[in-house]
């Protein structure tokens, strides 16, 4: 019977089995088929055989496809609440662009082609950020819904590598001294000296309070611990300790 059915079209099978021309099914017919397939093993075998023959490619294609819903995006936004505002905004912006370009549908082929085309059209850096966001979305959201498909999609594309060609040369000691000597303002002079001596970032020096500067032991206590950066202490040279102490004293007198 199965061998005979392999050579027949659906309408031909309907004529042979039921003796009538096939008609369009409605939702009630679909539910009847599903219920019958659940209860009847022979009917279930016949159903899967026909599905494989007439809709096999479509079924396989959609089995490896994930349709992103509004609930998925809300869950992703909720997960990003743990990140900094800048990181959250960047991730949400990238997932928004990715969903727009992919039509809210993730598959092995579409993801791989998308990242390759994005790198070619907008550059490796843009593609890298978009790929990292997609991998995070798949890991945190898709895998929680469908672990097997999520793993397949996660491994279907790679994050492009970015080669930063420009590497600024280090400033010479002579140039640093020249810049330092050309600064007239005492506060600006001290600020520049701290940057040069400690290697701290500009924002880190700007946010320092007097309580964080231990002049007796020559230590700046940053105690910074975020999701991406960790910095605890930095040391001051003896000359800088003395100069910084004088600057603080003058600042307190003039304030």
Task: Summarize the structure in short.
This protein is mainly α and 255 residues long. Strand 3 and strand 4 form a beta hairpin.
Binned strand content: 5-15%
**Rounded average pLDDT:** 80
Low-confidence stretches: none
Largest sheet, order of strands side by side? 3-4-5
H-E string: HHHHEHHEHHHHHHEEEH
Instruction: Provide the structure class.
Output: mainly alpha
State the total count of DSSP E strands. 5
**Main sheet attributes: strand count, strand direction, barrel closure:** 3 strands, antiparallel
Number of domains: 3
N-end to C-end Cα span: 99 Å
User: Quaternary arrangement of the chains shown?
Assistant: single chain
Residues in helix, %: 55-70%
Principal-axes geometry comes out as elongated
* Radius of gyration, taken over Cα atoms and rounded to an integer in Å: 33 Å
- Tally the helices: 13
What does this structure look like?
InterPro entries: DNA_brk_join_enz, Integrase-like_cat_sf, Integrase_catalytic. Keywords: DNA recombination. The protein is mainly α and 255 residues long. It has 3 domains: 2-63, no CATH class; 67-154; 173-254, Orthogonal Bundle (hpI Integrase, Chain A), CATH 1.10.443.10. It has 13 helices and 5 strands. The protein is elongated and about 95 Å long. 65% of the residues lie in helices and 8% in strands. The longest helix is centred in the N-terminal third of the chain and has 23 residues, at 41-63. A hairpin with a 4-residue loop joins strand 4 and strand 5 (230-235). The N and C termini lie far apart (99 Å).
């Amino acid at each position: 019977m199965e061998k005979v059915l392999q050579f027949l079209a659906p309408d031909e099978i309907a004529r042979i089995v039921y003796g009538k021309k096939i008609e369009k099914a409605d939702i009630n017919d679909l539910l009847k088929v599903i219920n019958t397939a659940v209860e009847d093993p022979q009917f279930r075998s016949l159903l899967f055989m026909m599905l494989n023959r007439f809709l096999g490619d479509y079924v396989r294609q959609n089995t490896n496809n994930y349709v992103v819903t509004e609930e998925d995006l809300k869950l992703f936004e909720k997960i990003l609440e743990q990140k900094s505002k800048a990181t959250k905004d960047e991730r949400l912006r990238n997932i928004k662009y990715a969903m727009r370009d992919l039509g809210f549908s993730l598959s092995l082929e579409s993801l791989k082609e998308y990242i390759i085309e994005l790198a070619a059209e907008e550059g490796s850096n843009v593609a890298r950020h978009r790929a990292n966001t997609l991998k995070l979305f798949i890991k945190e959201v898709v895998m929680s819904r469908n672990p097997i498909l999520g793993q397949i999609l996660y491994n279907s594309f790679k994050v492009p590598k970015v080669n930063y060609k420009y590497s600024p040369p280090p400033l010479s000691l002579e140039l640093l001294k020249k810049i330092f000597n050309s600064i007239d303002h005492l506060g600006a002079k001290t600020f520049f000296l701290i940057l040069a001596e400690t290697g701290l970032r500009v924002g880190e020096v700007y946010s320092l309070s007097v309580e964080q500067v231990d002049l007796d032991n020559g230590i700046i206590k940053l105690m910074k611990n975020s999701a991406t950066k960790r910095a605890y202490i930095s040391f001051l040279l003896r000359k800088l300790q003395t100069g910084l102490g004088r600057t603080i004293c003058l600042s307190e007198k003039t304030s």
